[in-house]
Amino acid sequence: MLRSSVIFVLAPLLPSVLESYKRAYNHTVRVQQLSELEEVIEYCTLPPMGNHVVEGRRALFPNMWNERIRVQEEMSR
User: Fold this and answer.
1) Residue ranges of the chain with per-residue pLDDT less than 70
2) How many domains does one find in the chain?
């Protein structure tokens, strides 16, 4: 279902990008939100600890999210 939402949101993105940044911005934000939702779903559905690959993947998400927040805070200054 999430994949179909991504496709639905992506469909108007290319034409809007060709028209103007302002029109494309809302579509771009929606695509980013769906991408982040996919990350949360993957993080929440990872199997229990015990496998070093899973543990590495589990650590990746908070690091990535913290980095996004840090960059956003720097850009807001």
Assistant:
1) 1
2) 2
